[in-house]
Write a structure and sequence with these properties.
Layout (H helix, E strand, L loop, with lengths): L1 H19 L3 H11 L5 H25 L5 H26 L2 H31 L1 H9 L3 H19 L3 H12 L4 H24 L6 H12 L2 H10 L2 H26 L1
Helix pairs in contact: 1-10, 1-11, 2-3, 3-9, 3-10, 4-7, 4-9, 5-8, 5-12, 7-8, 7-9, 8-9
C-alpha cells in the first residue's frame, strides 16, 4: 500500500515536471517534507537526486519534440555548473555540524521563498510586458547579460533544490527570448545535469533517501505518454498559465513556511 502511494505521488510529480518544468522546489520539496517527514537538508538532497532521475526521460522527450536549442543549453550549463556544485558542497558541509543545522534549514527555506517570489516577478513580466523586454535585450549580447543571473541561479539550485521552473525557466524566458516550450525543454535538460551535480555533492554526507527517490521516479515514468500528449495538444498560453499558477501557489506556501520557522 505504501509503495502504491509513493508510485501515485511520483506519477503526479512526473506529470508536472514534464509539462511545466516546475518541480524540485515547488512540488518535490513540500511533498518530501510534509508527506515523508524529511528534514530540509535530506529533502533538498533527495529532491536533487529525484529531479535528475525524472528529468532524464523528460529531456529525451523534449529533444525528440525539437524543444531544446543545444547551443544555448550548453552555454547555460557551462555558466551554472560550477556555482551549483560548490554551493551544494558548502551547504552539505555546514549542515554536518549539529549546532548549525537548524540555522541552515531556516536559511534554505528563506532562500527558497525569495527565489520563488523573484521568479514570479520575472515570469509575470515576461507574460504581460514581452515587447519592452525584447527591445531591451536585443541591444546587447543575451548570454553576457545572462551570466550573473545564471551564476546566482546555480547557487540557489545547489543550496535549495529549486531549479527548473522557479529559477532557470524564468531566466531563460527573460534573457534568451525562447518561447515557452523551448524554455521548458531547455530548463529540464539543464537542470538534469545540475541536479545530478548537486546530488553528488550531498551524497558525500549521506543525506539522500535513495529508495524513496527511485520509487517516485518509477511512478513518474508511467505518465510520460500522457505528458507527451499534453505537450503536443495544449497551446503555449495554456502552459504559461499552468506554470504561473504553480509558481504563485509555491510562493505563498514557502513564504508562510519561512515566516513560521523564523
Amino acid at each position: 500500500m505504501v509503495i502504491l502511494t509513493e508510485l501515485a505521488i511520483g506519477a503526479l510529480i512526473g506529470l508536472i515536471i514534464s509539462t511545466t518544468g516546475v518541480g524540485g522546489g515547488v512540488i518535490v520539496l513540500p511533498i518530501l517534507t510534509y508527506f515523508f517527514g524529511l528534514n530540509a537538508l535530506a529533502a533538498v538532497a533527495t529532491a536533487n537526486f529525484l529531479s535528475m532521475l525524472m528529468k532524464v526521460s523528460s529531456s529525451y522527450m523534449h529533444f525528440r519534440l525539437g524543444n531544446i536549442p543545444l547551443k544555448g543549453a550548453a552555454i547555460v550549463l557551462a555558466i551554472m555548473l560550477p556555482s551549483t556544485f560548490l554551493s551544494s558542497l558548502l551547504v552539505a558541509w555546514l549542515g554536518s555540524f549539529p549546532e548549525y543545522q537548524k540555522t541552515v534549514e531556516w536559511a534554505i527555506n528563506l532562500l527558497v521563498a525569495a527565489a520563488i517570489i523573484f521568479s514570479l516577478y520575472l515570469f509575470v513580466h515576461r507574460m504581460f510586458y514581452a515587447a519592452p523586454i525584447q527591445k531591451n535585450i536585443a541591444q546587447g549580447n543575451p548570454f553576457q547579460t545572462m551570466a550573473l543571473p545564471a551564476v546566482i541561479a546555480g547557487i540557489v539550485l545547489g543550496a535549495t533544490g529549486v531549479g527548473g521552473g522557479i529559477v532557470v525557466l524564468p531566466m531563460l524566458l527573460r534573457y534568451m527570448q525562447l518561447n515557452i516550450k523551448q524554455a521548458i525543454g531547455t530548463s529540464i535538460v539543464v537542470t538534469t545535469v545540475l541536479s545530478g551535480a548537486s546530488a553528488l555533492a550531498y551524497a558525500q554526507n549521506e543525506y539522500t533517501n535513495l529508495k524513496l527517490a527511485l520509487t517516485l521516479c518509477i511512478g513518474a515514468l508511467l505518465v510520460m505518454p500522457l505528458a507527451k500528449y499534453l505537450l503536443i495538444k495544449l497551446s503555449e498560453r495554456a502552459f504559461q498559465y499552468m506554470t504561473l499558477l504553480l509558481i504563485l501557489c509555491s510562493a505563498i506556501m514557502m513564504t508562510l513556511k519561512a515566516i513560521m520557522q523564523a
